[in-house]
From TrEMBL:
Compositional bias segments (type: Low complexity): 64-149, 158-168, 177-248
High-level lineage: Bacteria, Pseudomonadati, Myxococcota, Myxococcia, Myxococcales
Residues spanning the membrane: none
Name of the protein described by the UniProt record: LTD domain-containing protein
PROSITE patterns, per database record: LTD, PROKAR_LIPOPROTEIN
Domain LTD positions: 439-570
Region: Disordered, residue numbers: 61-254, 571-590
Source taxon at top rank: Bacteria
Keyword flag Signal: yes
Signal sequence segment: 1-23
Keywords: Disulfide bond, Repeat, Signal
InterPro entries documented for this protein: Lamin_tail_dom, Lamin_tail_dom_sf, Myxo_disulph_rpt
Pfam families cross-referenced by the UniProt entry: DUF4215, LTD
Biased composition (Polar residues): 571-586
Length: 641
């Protein structure tokens, strides 16, 4: 027998002896074994020690307490469930175990069906996964645990940081936890109902980033608070509510005018004859871009159609480039801002396209004798160069200039008709290249004057600065009692009529007759004054006002009781706001016309209107009076006219 075989027999004999001693058939025998007690023995329990896995009948027992007691918690070394254990139901799991026939075998085994590595091991009620283990208040959250069924984190998705680890505010809901001190579902979390973000948002960096802010569920809810809503694509919705937002401008597009304009082919700039413009409802706080599109390539809008209305402005011109060969001769331009849009047309003109007459306006006119009225001649398109149009009249309706010029790129020009003889009817004619257009004209009858008028005034004379008079004329067919009337004077810029002379109570004016009033220094070598105001007032030579009216006439500048007023020179309150211009010579005067066509030549000396009276009154001083070179006062003794 070899030495090695002998070595094997020694331990084998010992085992057989042990088995024979601990496996007695008499269960009534209270003492068994050979009386030898060995450390950690499983039987031969003559020593009566508890916990050595051998009862008093020498039967091997399984302890009821395994690795996983309340004090265990999976700490390596004092449990049976270490990585070197087998952990079967019949195993004791000590560090020196894992090698018996009933065990899992070697320390590298632990993988058989009865071993501790099966799916039924390490998690039984008596093992390291009981309800008292891994997840208790003293465990739950250590770096080696955090993963049992009662933990709430189910392993690596527990987020078992030191500040989290399954607290009451955790909830164990996994990756949406984030277990920081500011988490726990408080109102400061980013993702609660009061957040300003979508379900996928959540966090302190919400409400504002370019990819978030402005979604339908974000930016602008009542609970937002104004820290969001700022990016250009968001900001400014009605549901925003942030004082720092307001991103878009509240203005709207109100017009694209004029409705029809022109552009000459080969040019870039504003349209003609007027500039086409976009107009907003109000000045904007910031620049506003209005998009303008064209229906035809014959008209293109500069800057890719973006028309910028500057901050503080309401309108901006539309700059276009015209190309007659590119498409339709007329393009429709559409301006858009938000939901607002407006249209206008632009016609493309040839580089040398000729213009024709379109019409005269107004089509019918009335004018008083000697008065003027404006007419307008209009072409069909703006001409490329200045265009001269010939003018004429028929029927004696008055006079017009020989021609009028429509400037290049404009479409019309104005001119004046001066009325001819009263009652005349006829036409005004405009002619261009053999083509004519006309308007009907009528000269109205002389105005009927049914009240006393101031007929002639001299503010100075050969006798000096106070050689003054005021002549009155009665154009009616009946005598007028002017006793107690007032003659008043106001300086050119005076606040009231300071001079106030009351006529004698016996004063009368015969039908078509005269009445003469003079200053105390009036020199009437041939015609005496009928009444003398002495030094009640003195008129200014360069400008002033004289008026006449009944006894109830006040000194206020504007008084409806005034019957007639003359303002001359620099006067600021003349009839029609138009004083008689100019200053007479030393011996001259201001005289009312006999009719619309009267002039200084016809009213003086042997002129045709010298004895025709002074009844022309349109309530416009500059139109009603002429300036005489020599004065010709008349009194109540003078012949009627």
């Amino acid at each position: 027998m070899s030495l090695s075989f002998r070595h094997l027999l020694v331990p084998l004999s010992a085992v057989l002896l042990l088995l024979s001693a601990c496996g007695g058939d008499d269960p009534k025998d209270p003492v068994c074994g050979n009386g030898i007690v060995e450390s950690g023995e499983a039987c031969d329990d003559g020593n009566r020690n508890e916990g050595d896995r051998c009862n008093n009948s020498c039967q091997v027992t399984t302890p009821t307490v395994d690795a996983g007691t309340e004090t265990d918690g999976g700490v390596t070394g004092d449990d049976a469930g270490t990585t070197t254990d087998a952990g079967t139901e019949t195993d004791a799991g000590t560090t020196t175990d894992a090698g018996t026939e009933t065990d899992a075998g070697t320390t590298t085994d632990a993988g058989t069906e009865t071993d501790a590595g099966t799916t039924t091991d390490a998690g039984t009620e008596t093992d390291a996964g009981t309800t008292t283990d891994a997840g208790t208040e003293t465990d739950a959250g250590t770096t080696t645990d955090a993963g049992t069924e009662t933990d709430g984190g189910s392993g690596p998705v527990d987020a078992g940081t030191e500040t989290d680890a399954g607290t009451e505010t955790d909830g164990g809901s996994g990756p949406v936890d984030a277990g920081t001190e500011t988490d726990g579902g408080t109102t400061t979390d980013a993702g609660t109902e009061t957040d300003a973000g979508t379900e996928t948002d959540g966090g302190a960096i919400d409400a504002g980033p370019g990819t978030d802010a402005g979604t339908e569920t974000d930016a602008g809810t009542e609970t937002d608070g104004g820290t969001d809503a700022g990016p250009a694509p968001d900001a400014g919705t009605e549901t925003d509510g942030g004082t720092t937002d307001a991103g878009t401008s509240p203005v709207t597009l109100t017009a694209l005018e004029p409705a029809a304009t022109f552009a000459r082919s080969g040019t870039t700039g504003e349209t003609i004859p007027e500039s086409l413009e976009v107009t907003l409802s109000a000045p904007a706080d910031t620049a506003v871009v209005v998009q303008v599109t064209s229906s035809s390539p014959s008209i293109t809008v500069a800057n890719n159609g973006q028309v910028v209305v500057p901050a503080g402005a309401r309108s901006a011109a539309v700059i276009v480039t015209a190309n007659a060969a590119a498409g339709s001769a007329k393009a429709t331009l559409t301006a858009s801002l938000g939901s607002d849009s407006r249209n206008a047309t632009v016609r493309v003109l040839g580089e040398t396209e000729a213009a024709s007459l379109a019409f005269l306006s107004p089509e019918t006119v009335e004018v008083a004798p000697g008065k003027t009225v404006n007419l307008t001649v209009t072409l069909d398109v703006p001409p490329a160069t200045d265009t001269i149009i010939a003018l004429s009249t028929t029927g004696g309706v008055g006079t017009v200039p020989a021609s009028v010029t429509v400037p290049a790129n404009q479409i019309s020009a104005k001119f004046a008709l001066t009325g001819g003889a009263s009652g005349s009817t006829g036409t005004v004619v405009a002619t261009l290249n053999g083509q004519s257009v006309s308007a009907q004209a009528k000269v109205t009858s002389e105005p009927t004057t049914n009240h006393i008028v101031i007929s002639e005034v001299a503010a100075a004379g050969a006798g000096g600065a106070n050689d003054e008079f005021v002549e009155l004329y009665n154009p009616t067919n009946a005598e007028v009692n002017i006793g107690g009337w007032r003659l008043q004077y106001k300086s050119a810029t005076g606040a009231t009529y300071s001079g106030n002379f009351v006529l004698p109570t016996t004063a009368r004016i015969a039908a078509h007759g005269f009445f003469l009033l003079g200053h105390g220094s009036y020199v009437g070598t041939t015609t005496a004054a009928d009444a003398n105001w002495a030094t009640t007032f003195a008129m200014g030579a360069a400008g002033g006002h004289v008026r006449v009216g009944p006894a109830n006439l006040t000194t206020a500048i504007n008084d409806a009781n005034a019957v007639d007023t003359l303002g001359y020179g620099t006067a600021n309150s003349a009839e029609g706001a138009s004083p008689v211009n100019g200053t007479p010579a030393t011996g001259g005067s201001y005289e009312r016309k006999a009719k619309a066509t009267s002039s200084a030549a016809t009213m003086e000396g042997s002129g045709v209107d010298a004895a025709a009276g002074n009844s022309y009154d349109t309530n416009v001083n500059s139109a009603d009076f002429i300036i005489r070179t020599t004065r010709g006062p008349q009194n109540k003794a003078s012949a009627t006219e």
